[in-house]
Amino acid sequence: MTTSLWRHGDFMKLWAAQSISLIGTQITALALPLTAILLLHATPIEVGVLATMQYLPFLLFCLPAGAIVDRLPRIPLLVVTDLCRAVLLIAVPVFGWLGGLSLAVLYPIAFLVGGLTVFFDVGHQSYLPSIVAGDQLVDGNTKLNLTYSVAQLAGPGLGGVLVQAFTAPVAILVDAVSYVSSAGLLRLIRHRDVRTADEPRGKIVDPRELVSQTREGLRYVFRHAQIRPLAFATGISNFFYLFGMTGAIFTLYAVRELSLTPAQLGVVLLVGNVGAIAGSLIGGRLLRRWRFGPVMVTTVSAGAAATALMAVATPANAMVVLAIGILVGEIGVMVYNIGQISLRQAVTPLDMQGRMNATVRFVNWGPIPVGAFLGGLAGQELGLHAVLWIATVGNMLPAVPLLLSKVGRMRTMPAPLPEATGATGD
After folding, report:
1. Which of 22, 63, 65, 163 is the residue whose CA sits 20 to 30 A from 360?
2. Number of domains in the chain
3. 196 in a structural domain
């Protein structure tokens, strides 16, 4: 009999660490572009390049990260990446106080933090199946996504207030503190990784073996009838929605086109991200009680409604319309993410989790820097409204890979493979 996750000490520490870290991350997600826009007077293309630098590491490092993560103890890896990100973010207010802050400083910091986030995210997502039982994966992912939702709710609102009151660089300092706190909690986890007998421990493979293991991850994902369409659908969504094309220009659009202050923008994100909490709370229930495939198809397409609402907003109704748009989009994102992450983890053997997650993250997040750059470029040449209408059409496309595969027709999520988890829930 599995233990309730509420009484699972190591899971609760992992959950708490993620919670603290994500709130800080969401503050920076607003504060970093506001630093460029308000302090450095960045143009649309410069804001697009900043977003590109944040997500370019997912394109460059995801594939080798999977092979590396599968061979390293994950808790030390997570702790080191947390602490390194904290040091990099502290540099932003320091440069600000010294009068040397510029886009030339923000770009490499965004890139390096993004690179560390690649390793953290792959390690974090690959670690969960080793500490919870197979029948706890959906519950565990629901709780982790709920935390992400709460962070999305509280982080931007707090970030807007901090930027308004103390400037954007000071808000970023709060994120640095959150990473240090997360590292401290992760160090308290007692569970050690479950490793296969033939898997070398404590060392990174040589380049040839790294290439070989990266290819294994690519083959596994692209030959898997369920994981492949999920990866493509998520990648298309990320290209057009809040991380990619839309995300690159959203803050600039809200501040310059709709005349919102940082505090007002924080309130918009605070209200809109209630949808993320709602999606996290109902996601597991929807996926269990309704047909799994149609729920996934519907929710992955919610971004189209969100960007359409953003495009029709005016300065007079901006706060209400933008909040509703984000609310609709976030409900869809959260329900879909609970389903796709749980399905991937359930059908993947434990010793392939890191490579699978890294390959999927490469397909999912690799398009983001391209979408962000093209969003900034299109915003510069065509205008910010045009970008939102392009994104609206694009956000209808993620459903296509699911509809053309068995995922779109699935009644229920398959039971986890016996070798897909390494814990009994104790």
Report:
1. 22
2. 1
3. no
Residue 375 lies in a domain: yes
- Joined together, the tokens standing for residue 101 give 């802050």
Tokens 């800080």 -> residue: 24
**422 is a domain residue:** no
Query: In whole angstroms, what is the distance from residue 322 CA to residue 319 CA?
Result: 6
Q: Quote the domain boundaries for residue 361.
A: 5-190+224-413
Query: Per residue in 374-424, pLDDT tens?
Result: 998 999 899 999 999 999 999 999 999 999 988 888 887 666 655 544 444
CATH code: domain of residue 32:
1.20.1250.20
As given in the structure block, the two tokens for residue 183 are 């590292």
Q: Is residue 273 part of a domain?
A: yes
Determine the Cα angle at 141 with ends 139 and 144, to 5°: 110
Q: What angle do CA 57, 40, 37 make, to 5 degrees?
A: 75
Question: Residue 214, by phi and psi: left (phi above 0), alpha (psi -120 to 50) or beta?
Answer: alpha
Q: Is the pTM of this model over 0.90?
A: no
